[in-house]
Amino acid sequence: MVMFTVVRKETTPIEGQKPGTSGLRKKVTVFKQPNYLHNFVQSTFNALPADKVKGATIVVSGDGRYFSKDAIQIIIKMAAANGVKCVWVGQNGLMSTPAVSGVIRERTGADGSKATGAFILTASHNPGGPHEDFGVKYNMENGGPAPEAVTDKIFANTKIINEYFIAEDLPDVDISVTGVTCCNGPEGPFSVEVFDSSVDYVKLMKSIFDFESIQKLLSSPKFTFCYDALHGVAGAYAKRIFVEELGADESSLINCVPKEDFGGGHPDPNLTYAKELVARMGLGKSSPQGELPEFGAAADGDADRNMILGKRFFVTPSDSVAIIAANAVQSIPYFASGLKGVARSMPTSAALDVVAKNLNLKFFEVPTGWKFFGNLMDAGLCSVCGEESFGTGSDHIREKDGIWAVLAWLSILAFRNKDSLDGEKLVTVEDIVLQHWATYGRHYYTRYDYENVDAGAAKELMAQLVSLQSSLSDVNKMIKEVRPEVADVVEADEFEYKDPVDGSVSKHQGIRYLFADGSRLVFRLSGTGSEGATIRIYIEQYEKDSSKTGRDSQEALAPLVDVALKLSKMQEFTGRSAPTVIT
Ligand code: VG1
Ligand code: CO
User: Fold this and answer.
1) Which of 7, 96, 121, 248 is deepest in the core (most CB within 10 A)?
2) Which residue, among 402, 353, 393, 351, has the nearest Cα to 373 in the 3D structure?
3) Which tens digits make up the pLDDT trace of 472-487?
4) Which residues are catalytically annotated?
5) Residue 15: which pLDDT band, with cuts at 50, 70 and 90?
6) Is the CB of 449 under 6 A from ligand 1?
């Protein structure tokens, strides 16, 4: 058996290792700097309780982006040196973020052990490659992202670190083949278990959904389907689930081979970046030849996001979570006994609020980022939750789950069509959304992103928006100057959240302007970018009158957009006359 020794290395703190909305994300060139990854990993080990490191089992895997394979070998060697007993790695280093969450919660290792945490190597929807982004995020024993108390401690450790430990003489582990590698160190045996995580993930999905009814839907000649993994890790699961389990045709899958650089694309499932799918679904500039698919979906790099499309039809993520919540009990066996509650992030539209009110469900509004949903779920207060940023999920794990969302939609379609598959007309994605608006009203919604803006200018813009809040009469005067038809602002603040479970308080979670007619403008700085600053403007307007729910959303929201640009002085501060991305 291989023996290894532990080496103590001296190091010095490196600036800027503060985890953001979802882990530490930087350019690969930054991560490759001497000791950069080592410092962050050691700071993480030092932030955890000793028993979650010494003798523990941890997971190390990710979306397979460039630099992952090197990072996995480094983390294995550092884990061994820090007294970890076993490291689980997905074959080829691949594991989607939701699969990692499921593996922590459900899997038992070859030696009978359970994992207590995970290093997830991903920068999610950010591009990958030698000149693009890499990222590291730590998840806890419940399968969810480390809460702020832990990430704050990690960051504090990065500022004082002076040493790290590594088993330099441990040979690299071959992560391309499944199996267990055992070795011995000064503190006893250490092993690395490589396995195919799609096996565990398929099992989990089968325990939630009725695969038979989805299979019937997919095998109907009337129903056609297209899934775009944007060359992210979702591809590794899509083939197993959609083709092998559910019988979809292989040609339904596009960009489903995971690539280190995502094929040079931006693995973000929205109308701008999922170009090929958007064109296939008839939503592009030119109409494609032949029949359009009935249903389309896409995922981001680490497969926790989803975009849902019908034929020539886009479902906003805010509507998607509301529709899943409204239909879950009838359509998805896992929820048959009822929903414990529902939750959304603050900038997400209030479509879910209306469903919660109508169905008399517990409802929570949390800050942006999945870590805030976990506490609610652990306390049994929330079953379904979502974010406007193409994230939807449930309490089956503690991360958002892109493939779960697709299966949820397929379940709703299967349920609605269970008696009509042999009949004349299919109930389509668009039909389901239109029926939802007719029942609950429609929340017109759009988000404007200004990417890679000068960080100083972005800060000033936000500060100006906060100071403006002290005089609503001035605000309303400004609004009347640009768009007299827009309602008055009746309340303005910075969103603050008190966790109902542990009482922790998170401040400065977005600047809100709330209008008399229920419309909202929200301004936030992104916490996931790796260069400059990204300003996000979230724009929302509620329409209850069912004769007015069929407008184009950009047209319906144009007055509020003008108001948002005026209040924020966007062009003045940033020099930008248009956003980088509109979703
Ligand atoms: C963005 C989204 C947020 C999401 C986060 C992580 O954060 O707005 O809703 O939870 O990304 O998603 P920010 O701080 O850039 O707005 V992912 O798919 O990166 O794990
Ligand atoms: Co993601």
Assistant:
1) 96
2) 393
3) 898 899 889 989 888 8
4) 124
5) very high
6) no
Counting ligands in written order, which one lies closest to the CA of residue 370? Answer: 1
pLDDT at residue 531 in the model? 73
| SS3 per-residue string spanning 105-165 | HHCCCCCCCCCCEEEEECCCCCCCCCCCEEEEEEECCCCCECCHHHHHHHHHHHCCCCEEE
Q: Looking at ligand 1, which atom is closest to the CA of residue 389?
A: 9
Q: Is the dihedral of CA 271, 274, 279, 285 positive or negative?
A: positive
Q: Whose alpha carbon is nearest atom 1 of ligand 1?
A: 528
In short, whether 305's Cβ falls inside 6 Å of ligand 1 is yes
**Atom 13 of ligand 1 has which residue's CA nearest to it?**
526
Give the Å distance between the CA of 468 and the centre of ligand 2: 34
- 213 with 414: CB under 8 angstroms? yes
Domains of the chain (ranges plus CATH)? 2-195 (3.40.120.10), 201-440 (3.40.120.10), 442-582 (3.30.310.50)
Would you say residue 139 has pLDDT above 90? Answer: yes
Q: How confident is the model at residue 227 (pLDDT cuts 50, 70, 90)?
A: very high
Strands (E), 459-519: 489-494, 497-498, 505-506, 511-515
Q: Which ligand is nearest to the CA of 145?
A: 1
DSSP state, residue 239? I
Q: What is the mean pLDDT of residues 540-551?
A: 85
* pLDDT digits 0-9 by tens, 178-226: 999 999 999 899 999 999 989 999 999 999 999 999 999 998 888 999 9
In ligand 1, the atom with minimum distance to the C-alpha of 137 is: 20
Q: Where do the H-state alpha helices sit in 232-350?
A: 234-238, 275-280, 317-331
The token pair that represents 72 in the structure block: 């996995």
Q: How far is the CA of 370 from the centre of ligand 1 (A)?
A: 8
Q: b/e string for 544-581 if b means 16 or more Cβ within 10 A?
A: eeeeebeeebeebbebbbebbbbbbebeebbebeebeb
Name the DSSP class of 264.
G
The single residue listed with the structure tokens 């990417």 is 451
pLDDT of residue 404: 98
- Give the pLDDT mean for 354-383: 94
Task: Answer whether 133 contacts ligand 1 (Cβ < 6 A).
Answer: no
Count CB neighbours of 156 within 10 A: 14
Dig out the tokens for 34 from the structure: 């001497």
What single letter denotes the amino acid at residue 42?
Answer: Q
- Ligand 1 neighbour 368 (Cβ under 6 A): yes
Ligand 1, closest atom to CA 369?
Answer: 10
- Does the beta carbon of 344 lie inside 6 Å of ligand 1? no
How many whole angstroms from 137 Cα to the centroid of ligand 1?
A: 13
Best CA proximity match to 515, nearest among 492, 494, 484, 489: 489
- Which residue, chain included where needed, has tokens 């090929």? 276
Rounded distance between C-alpha atoms, residue 86 and residue 136, angstroms: 19
